[in-house]
Amino acid sequence: MSPPTILALDLEGTLISNAMSCFPRPGLHAFLDFSAAHFPRVVLFTAVSEHRVRPILDVLAAEAAIPGWARGIEIIGWAGEVKDLGFIPRATVAGTLLVDDLESYVHPDQRAQWVPIEPFVQPYPDTDLELVRVTEALRDRLRSAG
Ligand SMILES: [Mg+2]
Known about the structure:
Layout: E1 6-9, H1 28-38, E2 41-44, H2 50-62, E3 74-75, E4 96-100, E5 114-116, H3 130-145
Parallel strand pairs: 1-2, 1-4, 2-3, 4-5
The structure holds magnesium ion (MG).
């Protein structure tokens, strides 16, 4: 089994609070840098449309909540009820992992690719450690495949 090469990240409830308040989750900057260092391709797979996401990324980068490179992150266009990893251009399902807080978005045939994360919700505690925990979960996935 070859290690996954694409990391698909949900936005709302996973990396930030939501597209209205846009609070960055604790550890977001380090998590994105880890992602880029360990996966050849990191994409955003979100229900929020790209024209709304780009200004959010600009603000987060200006606040240094995300690395500068993340402003230009690839955003996956898709439609439907679930985040079918087949929507990612040139991706194979087996070579892709999805970090998402909502199980209902996971394609039923692609559950093995899902890396669950607890939703980042009010009161948005600054003690939230989910991105640290998921970093270790991703390290395990890479190790077990490598
Ligand atoms: Mg979400």
